[in-house]
Amino acid sequence: MAMVQPRSVGVRRLGAHLALICFVSLIVFPLLLVISISFREGNFATGSLIPENFSLEHWSLALGIPWERPDGTVVQPPFPVLLWLWNSIKVAVVSSVLILMLATTSAYAFARMHFKGKAPLLKGMLIFQMFPAVLSLVALYALFDRLGQFVGWLGINTHGALIVASLGAVALHIWTIKGYFESIDGSLEEAAMVDGASTWQAFRYILLPLSIPILMVVFILAFVMSIMEYPMASVLLVDEHKLTLAVGAQQYLADHNQRWGNFAAAAVLSGLPITVAFLICQRWIIGGLTAGGVKG
Amino acid sequence: MYTTNASRGLPRHRSRHLTERYTRWAMRGVIAVLVIALLWLVLAFHLNGQWMFALLFLLLGGSLGVVFTKRSLMSHRYIFPAVAGLGVFVIFPLIYTFGISFSNYSSTNLLSEERVRDQLMSQTYQAEGNAFDLALYPEGDLVRLYLESPQGQRFVSSPLNLANQENRQIGVQATDAPPAQEALGMRAVIQARDALQGLRLVTPDGSELRMAGLRQFAPMLDRYEAREDGTLYDRRDDRVLTPDHTIGFFVADDGQRITPGWPVNVGFSNYTQIFTDPDIRGPFMQIFVWTFVFASLTVVFTLAVGFVLASLLQWDQLRGKAIYRTLLILPYAVPAFISILIFKGMFNQHFGEVNMILDTLFGVRPEWFTDPWMARSMLLIVNTWLGYPYMLLLCMGLIQAIPQDLYEASAVDGGGPLTNLFKITLPLIIKPLTPLLIAAFAFNFNNFVLIALLTGGNPDILGASTPAGTTDLLVSYTYRIAFQDAGQNFGLAAAIATLIFLLVAGMSLLNLRLSKVKV
Question: What residue ranges are annotated as transmembrane (chain A) (predicted)?
Fold first, then answer.
């Protein structure tokens, strides 16, 4: 508590609250709008924030259930949203698990061992992490196109290709985990090794159980990044039933046929879990993000 | 830090535990299988003539084998998988892109020369002479083909099973009249099309008929004939095609290029094109400038908003900080591909909420998607919305580290909030913030997702020979050259990508120096 108080502090406090409330409502408006539109009749944006004609049509369609309008016409779901969500989750889970395994083992070596080329490798990782994948898309496309000729599940239009390609983003996570490992005292592991444990056993049975929090954070971080990945998925995936949500969602807002209402329901349905997960884990995620780089 | 037995050069003892020994052998087996699989890929790529990829996997398999067999490289085993992933999916694409930038790799020069040759050799043409009308006559489950030419030649085949789609040669016999049954309709012909296309009908005089249209068979001949000196003879047009290895096309005597071609090395021509061809240089420079402006303004706006909010939220007289904080970082928590699309709908010129509100308040309806300057403003507005929470979080962290007595001293000397902001807070956080600002600049410099989902680069720049838009950033411009429209000019896209790589490399080196990373 500050010792010296200016006299006008009450007025200032009120002003600050007013300014913040105005700003927050400006920021949150688009999000509330979308929730409201998802419960509204019709595919247009017009209408008030609290729906006048309440309807579950868009939600039903987003969940893949055909909807019967009062006049008897049956509307079929325009896009397989749940399938896209499932694709996204499938790709994200597998790639996050792989990234976590790779990042943990290498972070262990970088934090605890001396070996040739350690410093240049770490620095190189920081530099290469800044190169956007969009620029290498031609090369990645060519790589998977050729690989697909010999290994079917790694070709264009497979989820395997998308998962494997995401392994390039491992550098950021190595840095995050390495920082955490370095904050844990190494004497526990040394004690274990004096008692005859191998390096691997010291890592597996001593260090890993101590680092579960950071592993959770990296997993969630990798998961969120994978769900939001757009450029690579847009090039590697072709068929509608193979798309991930990030690529598929834009089809609702095609230039000539905007399905605003259907989009809103799909967006809330798929965006809400990710948003909530992010908010719950924000404390740890933000620590990792601000330490390493920028959200992608 | 500690050393392992291996790094001390001590021999490894044979483990007393049976399971451990088995695990070791299992690991060795897995490694061996992986190495063999990779070497098989090397061979496959090599036989296919793709030496870059063969080399990549040779390097990968070789280093895998070495790292996991030499005991002195024990520590490297832990980092090998991650480094390999980085190598294959980040560094190799970089080198490969650099390589492509010196070639004319594009949708017209896509296949290898051999494949182009094969493709040309499989081309056929309809020989001069009679085409036959086709009719199908059912005979039980099977079908007879009946052919009749305008000149009155008639042929009929034996009953065929058209469910069999294999390529095969079928003899046909001369006949006087069509079979007695009723002919099958068009629908049956369409259904049997795949099977019919595989048929080669051999007439009694030895000429071969192939399907030439849905209801026609005609004598088809191979169009090109390979000659020993590598040229192709075009039977239909009676000309000679010579392979030109400087442009990657077969060229006819009159200079006409025959598509498809194959990729060849064109030296620096993609780079000179960027800087000399006015139809490319103009849009390129315009996009280049806009990319810089966009990235700088984004950083300035997001920093300004984030900094002011952070200072407000750090004020100890304020209640309800946690709620404000959560609401303020919401734009960060919502997946970007969803919030960008929300804005795309909101800014819609005809039905969007933004124009509805502006219309009722001020009576204006800006053309957000067709006017270049309005589109650019929209991008900046949306990107500020998306990006300020990151700056807010950064600033909050840094402001917390400023000692409170500085503000006390300022209050004693009569400093107001503005003095505090500009004389204490800002100077103290700007230094640790700089590397993060450079990272944010680099990120927005390459903010592909925003452009791709919101404007797609539109409205277009007039008079550009490549797809280029007034709101395109360099990355989205590259993406469009490579993957959109008919051109698909991978070579040119790779050249621009290489230039961006250089810029990004410069930024990240600067960043590394400023942030003084300790390894």
Answer: 20-39, 89-110, 122-144, 150-175, 205-228, 260-281
